[in-house]
Specification:
By secondary structure, this protein is an alpha/beta fold. The chain is built from twelve helices and 13 strands. Helix 4 links the parallel strand 4 and strand 5. Helix 3 packs across helix 4 and helix 9 packs across helix 11.
Length: 350
Amino acid sequence: MKVVHVVEAWKGGIASYVQALIDYQTSQGFEVVLIADSAELKADDRALGIEVINYSSSRNPLRCLQISSWLADVIKKIKPDVLHCHSTFPGLYIRLRRHSCKVIYTPHGWSFFKKDVGFFSRFIYKSVERFLSFRCSRNVCMSLEEVRAAQDIGIPESSLALVYTGIPDVSSVPTSSHHASAADGPIKIGFFGRFDYQKGFDLVEKASALVDSSVEIHVFGGAVREAPGSISPHLIYHGWLNHRDIHENMLKMDAVLIPSRWEGFALTPLEAMRAGRPVIISNLTSLPEVVVHGFNGLIMSEYNAAGLAKILKSLTKEECCRMGRNARIVYEQSFTFDKFSNEMDLVYQG
């Protein structure tokens, strides 16, 4: 089988998701090609071992049409069996044109989930997504929230597939007695990702000013499209991590914080649970689908800095260890890569 993946962003969750698929598909003998934004690829050093074709993405409507036409010509020459586009703009570029192969679209969070745009913009996003949903074989949703939202705007159920993401295991797994830090030291909380409105980084900054020295908040990441904000004196900054170093740094934390306002289906909570770390999440978007409050993590009851700070100050290392053990069990039972890859194979073959 010949598979082409089309992406724009090549950092964070989408890159990890697509790379895991590429690694699996090549191991199965598939011929795989990646088409990606050249500017995004320059910022990443992972070796994929496959053919990579570069393009330059754009938000300009005329350029979008040009990119769509150029990609259609490239894909026609490749002649794939499956064309898998990831996220909003690759989904737009690909589905604006007809293709003779099977087209799979994974939105990684519907465009109309965005909460930093107005009502009219969301209406346009919904209209475009509904129209383009008929231009592909399957719309792969990563959460029940995505499925319900798609049905609400008129995307037919027959074109939807729910495939919860799974991630490959790693050899370095914490033992039941593992403590991230000294028993008498501060609780270490890790935030991994972009410093932007979607990820709730502004809430992290506000909450950090409300906790005392018993809590350390470590942030791993940086700004991407938004301009970097001011440096908070209450946070410990580590910058962007190489994707290979995420797991080891999660092991150094007592818990992982994910206060996103919207997500398709975030990989960070899965990475945290794989590392045996409990997750502290917002009560918004699809995040509560992976957490049972008090079992493998905590769900914020209200989305504000005071409520988040109260949760952080109430944590103990013993509680983090207990929930962390449960988190690892949840990963093993529900979010392994084998489960995910088997379900994705059925989508490709269906």
